[in-house]
Amino acid sequence: MRTGVTQLLSDDALQVASQHVERSLGLHFPEPRYAELERALVCATNELDLSGPEALVGRLGADRLSQREIEVLAGQLTIGETHFFRDRPVFDTLENEFLPPLIASRRQSQPYLRIWSAACCTGEEAYSLAILLHRLIPDWHDWNITILATDINPVFLDRAASGRYRPWSFRSTPDWLQAEYFRPGPDDTVDLLPEIRRMVTFSYLNLVDATYPSPATNTNAMDLIMCRNVLMYFAPDRARVVVRKLVNSLVEGGCLLLSACEASTGLFEGLPVERTPAGFAYCRATPTPPALASPRLRESRARSRPPRADQEGALSRTQIVFKALLAKEASHPAIQDEQVDGEAGAAYERASCLYSEGHYPDAIRELQAVDDRDELSLAALVLAARACANAGELEQALSWCVEAIMRDRADPAPHLLQASVLQELGRDAEAVSALRRCLYLDANRVLAHFNLGNLALRKSDRKTAAKHFRHARDVLASCPTDSVIPDSGGLTAGRLDQLIVSLLKGLERDAA
Ligand SMILES: C[S@@+](CC[C@H](N)C(=O)[O-])C[C@H]1O[C@@H](n2cnc3c(N)ncnc32)[C@H](O)[C@@H]1O
Q1: Whose CA is nearest to atom 27 of ligand 1?
Q2: pLDDT tens digits, residue range 183-235?
Q3: How remote is the CA of residue 22 from the centroid of ligand 1, in Å?
Q4: 20, 100, 176, 291: which could form a disulfide with 359 (CB 3.0–4.6 Å)?
Q5: pTM of the full predicted structure?
Q6: DSSP secondary structure string, 116-169?
């Protein structure tokens, strides 16, 4: 029963809204929270200038919400509560236990790190990580450091990208933080130092969508993912699927951190977790367990080779249910599948299943085992490259990209993927060449313009960055706002345009 508000919507309408909000945003609004849901629907209706909340519920129920409507609704339904170095024990554990050995080992092999703050809100968590790395790695300029920060609320993302904060963001933070890393801004605000601000890339990502893990969204092969204080607002089934996809976004040995209140609710069901002072952590083991979970994969294996009894027995019932659930949700390669029969076709089918379940090394093995590589389709070669990229096997990913390029020299997609991998390897000049080749084949590949802009930004070449971002906007101007950009893992034209607008604003701010 709702109390204290004028009831504008019937309980039936709210039930419809609740089901669809859960499906499109993951957020859980059971009956006791109907009053909150109604308030958010009314505010979103006003913001969107719709005739009344019933109209919004009608569009929700018919699955006809535009990207903008989803974002406005998300803005009304989500809670933007965060601050710098939130939960000190988390950052102390990262500083003293998790990061030092990782940094030491990467220093000896290849100096790179990949970190993701998922559901980053207004950016305090991501910037705290950047500051931590800045303190732990004195020569950080020579490293290839990725700090990706994503959220569903574009207003939060814009605020985050500005790097401007009010005193409330600094409650319970150490004294040195403001003195060393911020400069006074207008009124009672402070501005983060630009060199720290530029360490973080902000991007829109709905955790419910199938846009990750993927090199296209730069959400693959992460060393550390922090996804804190968000899944507690999700329906438990949704949250479990999100956890599994985040686990699949880790490189082997990588670590996923949830907050204690979330992880204790069984979100890691079926996965070995450790209770640490930083909350609950899951570290992706090496090697990945073999997968035989989804019915499609089981059938495919049964058709082509005798079953391996040892593997099925190794999976618990919950794991099997979990993986089957995930297989339904998982993303699929952007390149159109060609119909290939025989050994190569069957291997591709199995590898696709393994990939969608996050078993990248197994997917790679399936494709490597094909005797005649010429039999593999372009889609299979690209899948192999993606699986290697997701497993952090970047050199191997590059050689599959080259094979894919040789297979069809006129297709721009493998060049784009090759550029993402080169970018991850810090081979920026080669990445630029790959992107130019991609644009030569298709001048309207908007992601190539966008990535050229990002690469220029990395070199602090603001003029070139702005030029590429403007080209990307020119291409986007002719795309419907809700259309999904090829090879983007689900990013829409409208969202990318907003992202570019906020990057261009940042460039103007830097120039001022
Ligand atoms: C309470 S804040 C957490 C911020 C930060 N992680 C922390 O722990 O301080 C929750 C964030 O989750 C975001 N969020 C809610 N639903 C989301 C979804 N489906 N996908 C991505 N982000 C989402 C909200 O916009 C909000 O910024």
Answers
A1: 121
A2: 999 999 999 999 999 999 998 888 998 888 888 788 988 999 999 989 988 88
A3: 15
A4: 291
A5: 0.73
A6: EEES-TTTHHHHHHHHHHHHH-TTGGGSEEEEEEEES-HHHHHHHHHTEE-GGG
